[in-house]
Amino acid sequence: MRILGLDVGIKRIGIAISDELGWTAQGIKTLHRHNGERDVREIRDIVREYEVEKIVVGLPRNMNGSLGPQAEMALGFVQELSEILGVPIITWDERLSTVEATRLFIKADLSRKKRKGKVDMTAAILILQSYLDSLARKGNP
C-alpha cells in the first residue's frame, strides 16, 4: 500500500511517497503552486501513477496546539483534495518539520539557493516518515 505525504505551503507543496511496504518515505518533487484546480490535478496524477491508497497532509499547528492561518489553508486544500480524489486523507501534526528540514540542509552546508526547492520535499518526507513510524509502533505497517 502506497501512502502519499504532502507538505502544503502557500508557494510550494512538498511531495513524498512511501515504498510499497509502507516502511520508508522518499521524496518525489516540489510542486510550485499555481491555483487550486491545477495543483489538485497534478496531485491526482501522482495518486494514479503510484496507485496511492492514502494521503497524509502535514497540519502546521502552533506550538500551543491551536490552528493558525497556515493550518486553515492546509485544511482548505485537504477539503479540495477529498472532493476530487476519493482516497482517505488524514492530517498529521507537522510542527517544525520545515524547520527540521532546513536544519538538515544547513548542517550539510548547502547554500540557501541549493536548498530552496528541496526543503518542502524534505519536510514532506519527514511528515510521511513520522506517520509511517507511528504505524510501525502500533504494529500496522
In short:
This protein has 141 residues and is α/β, with parallel strands linked by helices.
Q: Can you describe what's shown?
A:
The protein has 141 residues and is of the alpha/beta class. The protein has one domain: YqgF/RNase H-like domain (Nucleotidyltransferase, domain 5, 2-Layer Sandwich). The protein has a five-stranded mixed β-sheet with strand order 3-2-1-4-5, sandwiched between helices. Strand 2 and strand 3 form a beta hairpin. The protein starts with a strand and ends with a helix. The mean pLDDT is 85.
List keywords for this structure.
141 residues; alpha/beta; Nucleotidyltransferase, domain 5; 5-stranded mixed β-sheet; 48% helix
Order of helices and strands: EEEHEHEHHH
What is the CA–CA distance across the termini?
9 Å
Return the structural class: alpha/beta
- Basic shape: globular
Q: How many strands in all?
A: 5
Point out poorly predicted stretches.
none
The rounded Rg comes to: 14 Å
Topology:
Elements lengths: L1 E7 L3 E7 L6 E8 L3 H15 L1 E8 L9 H17 L3 E5 L3 H11 L4 H4 L3 H20 L3
Parallel strand pairs: 1-4, 4-5
Antiparallel strand pairs: 1-2, 2-3
Helix pairs in contact: 1-2, 3-5
